[in-house]
Amino acid sequence: MLNNVKVHKYGDHVDTDTILPGRYLDLRTEAELAPYCLAGLDADFVGRAKPGDVIVGGKNFGTGSSREHAPLAIKGNGVSCIVAINYARIFYRNAINIGLPVFECPDLVADVAHGDTIDVNATTGTFVLNGKLYQAKPFAPSVKDIIEAGGLVQFVRQRTQPAFPR
Hints:
Blueprint: E1 2-9, H1 16-19, H2 30-33, H3 45-48, E2 54-56, H4 69-76, E3 81-84, H5 89-97, E4 102-104, H6 106-111, E5 117-121, E6 126-129, E7 132-135, H7 141-149, H8 152-160
Parallel strand pairs: 1-2, 2-3, 3-4
Antiparallel strand pairs: 1-5, 5-6, 6-7
């Protein structure tokens, strides 16, 4: 549970080019990408973001290209999760695959404002804003397992390692 984390709220149809402009696509790691996160939308985000903060978007968050650079840049800034009304399908899957929780919770999106502080439980998908509890749409069990493992690569590693080392 994370208490009193800051909300960075954006609107509908935030695309991957505004999350991470194309001129940074030659970078690959979270650490390399993090300084350019949201450079096309909110140039001050990186300076304001603190570990555990939450990004809130509207409809169709992460629309655009299929590259996973955008969620990697977000994760590299220590964002605990993203909450939106819904997501572009490929962004959603890329975020899951790197272990970044992406929740659908339209009621929270409607009630929260940029700069608010909320309590977050990324394990249960629950949020508290001004004493009101919000429950995000639950993940499918397989998705939950991938996120809990830290991403798809770690999930596969955990399941393919021999039970007894040689």
